[in-house]
Known about the structure:
By secondary structure, the chain is an alpha/beta fold. The chain has 16 helices and 10 strands.
Amino acid sequence: MRGDRSMSCPTRRSRRRGASVALFAAAVLGLAACDEAGGEERETTFAVQAWPELVMTTQVVEEILGEMGYTTETDDMSVEVTAEALDTDDVDVYLGNWWPSQEPTFGERIEDDEVDVVGTYLEGTEYQPAVPAYVADAGVTSFADLDDHADEFDRTIYGIEAGAPGNETIMDAIDDDAYGLGDWELVESSTPGMLAELESVYDEEEWIVFLGWTPHWMTVEYDLTFLEDPEDVWPGAGEVRAVTRSGLEDEDPDLVRLLSQLETEIETQSDWIHELEQEERAEEEVAREWLGENPDIVEGWLEGVETADGEDAAEVVPDAF
């Protein structure tokens, strides 16, 4: 069942501009009520970037923590600043540690125990060129098939913003004549621009190859095939991990246990992103609806976790949604 959010003691804060005085007053009153009830106040700060999958995952965890008696806060910052902020204890948790792509930023800090990896919650992420399923059905399932159909593709691969790692990998493949792509062209534009190009040809089943990734709503909206890579030009499937500032587990073992047990599927994340970006729904609404529809999953994440009041979180939290 869905809980009444107005009855929850904890609040979620943000350092983004635009928070209203009324909401702040409500937060203060809510915290005072919690103190009167004798609950232990716990605060957690999350680092975020404006990536829809990270926004949604953080929101889902914040909703759970809110029902556990926590006050949560999100800080928008770059990946590089996030690593530094975890190292200096200015933030507690980061749920956007894409691996291995962030190894240059986080690798040394993790090795030196300045940042702790507490769990991997998403596996099998993809980030490489893809084609519509109707193109794959016609025989193009690998990078090795592209040049045999160069005319159908107009010797063009559509990318995203200039400087994106995926674009760089495509340009390196062209420069190295990998898979015979030496006379091909990369069209750099933007993520919306690339997706608009896909939309413009999809219904007519015209051929296109473009930079795709998961999780993303594109895999919900379109039937796509990621190309095989027998020469290992691309880094392969990745994962997304939960990392914390060093020592958080000793201070808050319940929080870290929750994060270590967090698991999501690519399809789930893509659905969240579709609801957020294509259906234009608020992240809080999407998160609480999903949590209410999946109590068994939430219970598994909370096994052995206690709320701020010392209750069994797996027993009391799922019913709040």
